[in-house]
Write a structure and sequence with these properties.
Layout: H1 16-23, H2 28-33, E1 50-55, H3 62-78, E2 87-92, H4 103-112, E3 117-121, E4 143-147, E5 150-152, E6 166-170, E7 173-175, E8 178-180, E9 186-190, E10 193-194, E11 201-203, E12 209-213, E13 216-217, E14 221-222, E15 230-235, E16 280-285, H5 291-295, E17 307-311, H6 316-327, E18 334-339, H7 344-348, E19 367-372, H8 377-388, E20 396-400, E21 402-404, E22 418-420, H9 426-444, H10 446-473, E23 499-506, E24 512-514, E25 517-519, E26 524-531, H11 538-548, E27 556-565, E28 573-578, H12 581-594, E29 599-606, H13 610-614, H14 625-628, H15 630-636
Parallel strand pairs: 1-2, 2-3, 3-4, 4-6, 5-7, 6-9, 7-10, 8-11, 9-12, 10-13, 11-14, 12-15, 15-16, 16-17, 17-18, 18-19, 19-20, 23-29
Antiparallel strand pairs: 21-22, 23-26, 24-25, 27-28, 27-29
Helix pairs in contact: 8-9
Organism: Oryza sativa subsp. indica
Domain F-box: 8-54
Region (Disordered): 406-430, 616-637
C-alpha cells in the first residue's frame, strides 16, 4: 500500500462517524469551533455522540453564567435530533448563585435525546446547588453520576428509568426519605450527607454491588437486597457514634443520651439485615461508631457469605462482635481482620463470652488473616479461639502492618485500608513462634486449659469492675491537649491540591489556658478532609460547614477560629478569627509551611432578633468570654 504524501488530507479520508467520534472528546465550545476548518466540518459537531459542557477550573461571574446558558441552549436547539446521543457530561467550575446555570433544563433535554450516560460534576464551592425535585423520565438512561449537588425525594425515585443500572454520588447532600429503583445494580455513595430524621431508606431489590464510604449524617437503612453479591461499608464521621465505644464499651441502647443522633427508637436493623444475602462483605468503622454493634441485636444469618473483612470495632469487649459473626456465617471461607493499635482499656475489658461454647457455624473456613500494627493481647486471643476450635495453625496468617485508618487513600475517599508492611524483628518472630507453640500445647491439654481460662476470666472480670468504678468517678474523659502534641508534618502533602485533614472542635465547652497556650479538650471533635483547601473561598468553607453541621443560617450564626502560633521558635497556641478568603488561604499555607496541626474551633450562636436591632440595640454580637479571652489568659499563665 503506497504511503500517503505529505500534502494529503488524512483526516479528510475518514468517514463522518469517525470524525464525530474524535470530536466527542473535545469540550463543546472547541468542538463547535472546528466548523471553521472546512465546509465539510461545518455541521459535524451537530451529530456528536457525546456532549461535554465544561467549565472546570474557571470562575463564572453573573455575565459568564448567562453567556454559558445562551450558548448551550442555542447549541441544543441546533443539534441533529436524529443522531444518537450516547452520553452527556456537565462539568462546571465555581459560579455565582444569583444566576445559576440552567443545568436542570439541559438534563431534561438530553434525556429526551435518549442519552444513556449522564455525568453532572459541580465545584465544591457550589455544593448547595439543588437538582430539580422532579423524577427523571427515560427508558434509555443506564448510568448516572453526580457530584456536589443537593438531591431530594422525587429526584431519587427512579421508577421512571427502567434501564438505569448504575448510580454514583460523591459529596452530595441527600435530603430524601428513600432511594428507590427496581433496576439499579451498582450503587456508589462517597462522602455524602444523608438525612437524619427520618433516616434515608435505600430500596434497591436488584442491587448487585454496594459501596457506602464515609457518609455524614445518619447511616441510611438498607432494605432487602436478594441479588447482592458484594458490599463495602466504611463509617468514620457519621452521627451514629457514642463516647462509650471509645472506652472499650458497647452502645446498644436505642435511647442512649450519649449518642448524638441515635434515632433508633423504631427498633429496626439499619445495615446488616439488608446485607445478609451478600457473598463478600467489607465492614469498616471507627471504634466510636456504634451502628454495627447495635445491629448485632438483630443479627441475621449470612447464608451466602464466603469472604468477610472487619477492623478493630469487631474485637472489642472480648471479641463479642467477631464471635457473633462467626455464629451466623455457615459457609464462610476467608476472614480478614485489620487491627490498629487499641487503647489500653480495650486490652483489659472482658465480655461475657464462655470459651467452652464453640463459636463457629462454618465448617469451610480455610483462611484467617490478621493484619495488625502490634502483636498484642487481641491477637493472642484470636489465635486462642481459632486454634481451640479446630482451625489449624497453618490456616492463620499474621501480618504486621501499619494501617492508616484516619487518612483517605485517594480523592475518592476510599478510606481506611491502606497497608504498609514493615520488617518483622527477630524478637517478634520468636514471640509469634512461642505463641503458636503454646496454642498447640493447649489443643493437646484442652480440659486443663479451659479451667485456666475460667480462672483467668474471673480475674479479668474483677479488674474490669475496679476499672468501671474508677471510670464512674470521672466526670469527663480529657484527651491530651493539642499544645502537648507534636506537629504532624506528614498530614500536609507537598501537593496542595490533595486533601488536608482538619480537626473541627464544636459544641459546648470552655477554652482552657496552659503553659503552651489554648487547650480545646472540653469541646467535641470531628475529623474531616477538605480537598484543595488552599484554593477554597471562605464562603465555600462556611457553606460546607453549615451543611455538614446542619446549621440553620436564618436563625444561627457561625464564627470560625483557627489555632495558630506566632512564636518563631517553639509553639504557643492562640486562636485567630477567620472572616475572609485571604485570611483563610493564608492560614492554610502557613499551617502547611510550619507543620501546625490543622485545628479549627467553631463557635455557633443564635442570631439577634431584628426587632432588637431596630429598637437601637447597636451592640455587636460578642464572642463568649471563654473564647475571646483565651489568648490573653494564656499569655498571663
Amino acid at each position: 500500500m503506497p504511503r500517503p504524501r505529505g500534502g494529503d488530507d488524512r483526516l479528510g479520508a475518514l468517514p463522518d462517524e469517525a470524525l464525530q467520534h474524535v470530536l466527542s472528546f473535545l469540550p463543546l465550545p472547541e468542538a463547535v469551533r472546528t466548523g471553521a476548518l472546512a465546509r465539510r466540518w461545518r455541521h459535524l459537531w451537530k451529530s456528536m455522540p457525546v456532549l461535554r459542557i465544561t467549565g472546570e477550573g474557571r470562575v463564572l461571574n453573573r455575565r459568564g453564567v448567562r453567556r454559558l446558558n445562551r450558548f448551550v441552549n442555542h447549541l441544543l436547539l441546533l443539534r441533529d435530533r436524529s443522531a444518537r446521543l450516547d452520553a452527556c457530561e456537565i462539568n462546571l467550575g465555581t459560579f455565582r448563585s444569583q444566576d445559576d446555570p440552567q443545568i436542570n433544563l439541559w438534563i431534561r433535554h438530553v434525556l429526551l435525546c435518549e442519552a444513556q450516560d449522564l455525568w453532572v460534576h459541580l465545584s465544591i464551592d457550589n455544593n448547595s446547588f439543588e437538582m430539580e425535585n422532579l423524577a427523571l423520565v427515560s427508558r434509555h438512561l443506564t448510568r448516572l453520576e453526580l457530584s456536589n449537588v443537593v438531591l431530594k425525594d422525587h429526584f431519587l425515585n427512579f421508577s421512571s428509568c427502567p434501564a438505569l443500572e448504575e448510580l454514583v454520588t460523591r459529596n452530595c447532600h441527600i435530603e430524601a426519605e428513600e432511594i428507590l429503583s427496581e433496576s439499579l445494580k451498582w450503587l456508589t455513595a462517597v462522602d455524602c450527607v444523608f438525612s437524619s430524621y427520618p433516616r434515608t431508606r435505600i430500596s434497591l431489590p436488584s442491587l448487585v454491588a454496594l459501596e457506602l464510604t464515609e457518609p455524614w449524617g445518619s447511616t441510611p437503612v438498607l432494605e432487602s437486597m436478594p441479588s447482592l453479591l458484594t458490599a463495602s461499608i466504611k463509617l468514620t464521621d457519621c452521627d451514629d457514634h457514642c463516647g462509650k465505644e471509645e472506652f472499650g464499651g458497647s452502645c446498644d441502647d436505642n435511647a442512649c443520651d450519649n449518642c448524638g443522633a441515635n434515632g433508633g427508637s423504631s427498633g429496626d436493623c439499619v445495615l446488616l439485615d439488608g446485607l445478609s444475602e451478600a457473598e463478600s462483605l467489607e465492614l469498616i468503622a471507627k471504634p466510636r461508631v456504634f451502628i454495627f454493634r447495635r445491629d448485632l441485636m438483630w443479627c441475621p444469618t449470612f447464608s451466602k457469605l464466603k469472604t468477610l473483612l472487619l477492623n478493630e470495632w469487631s474485637v472489642a469487649i472480648d471479641l463479642v462482635a467477631l464471635i457473633c459473626f462467626l455464629q451466623h456465617t455457615p459457609v464462610l471461607e476467608k476472614l480478614t481482620l485489620q487491627l490498629i493499635e487499641a487503647p489500653a482499656n480495650w486490652m483489659e475489658n472482658e465480655g461475657s463470652y464462655d470459651p467452652t461454647e464453640n463459636p463457629f457455624a462454618s465448617k469451610q473456613l480455610k483462611v484467617v488473616e490478621v493484619k495488625c500494627e502490634k502483636f498484642d493481647l487481641r491477637v493472642h486471643k484470636i489465635i486462642m479461639i481459632f486454634s481451640t476450635y479446630g482451625v489449624n495453625i497453618e490456616q492463620i496468617y499474621i501480618q504486621r502492618s501499619v494501617i492508616h485508618s484516619e487518612e483517605p487513600t485517594d480523592d475518592s475517599g476510599a478510606g481506611p485500608s491502606r497497608l504498609r508492611t514493615p520488617p518483622i524483628s527477630t524478637s517478634e518472630n520468636a514471640q509469634l513462634k512461642s505463641t503458636i507453640d503454646q496454642m498447640l500445647r493447649q489443643q493437646q491439654e484442652l480440659p486443663a486449659q479451659q479451667q485456666q481460662q475460667h480462672h483467668f476470666l474471673s480475674q479479668l472480670q474483677r479488674r474490669q469492675q475496679i476499672l468501671c468504678d474508677i471510670t464512674a468517678q470521672l466526670s469527663k474523659y480529657s484527651a491530651p491537649p493539642l499544645s502537648q502534641r507534636p506537629p504532624q508534618a506528614n498530614l500536609y502533602p507537598s501537593d496542595m491540591s490533595s486533601k488536608l485533614i482538619f480537626d473541627f472542635y464544636y459544641g459546648e465547652g470552655n477554652v482552657r489556658c496552659g503553659q503552651n497556650g489554648v487547650d480545646l479538650s472540653e469541646f467535641k471533635c470531628m475529623t474531616r478532609g477538605i480537598e484543595r483547601a488552599a484554593e477554597r473561598s471562605f464562603e465555600a468553607v462556611c457553606n460546607w460547614l453549615i451543611r455538614g453541621f446542619r446549621i440553620d443560617p436564618q436563625t444561627d450564626g457561625l464564627t470560625i477560629y483557627a489555632m495558630v502560633s506566632r512564636e518563631p521558635i517553639g509553639y504557643f497556641w492562640e486562636l485567630m478569627p477567620i472572616d475572609c478568603t485571604d485570611i483563610w488561604r493564608r492560614y492554610v499555607e502557613m499551617a502547611c509551611e510550619r507543620c501546625w496541626p490543622l485545628t479549627i474551633l467553631l463557635h455557633m450562636y443564635k442570631k439577634r432578633n431584628t426587632l432588637d436591632v431596630a429598637m437601637g440595640n447597636d451592640e455587636g454580637q460578642s464572642m463568649p468570654s471563654d473564647v475571646g479571652s483565651g489568648n490573653d489568659r494564656a499569655r498571663q499563665s
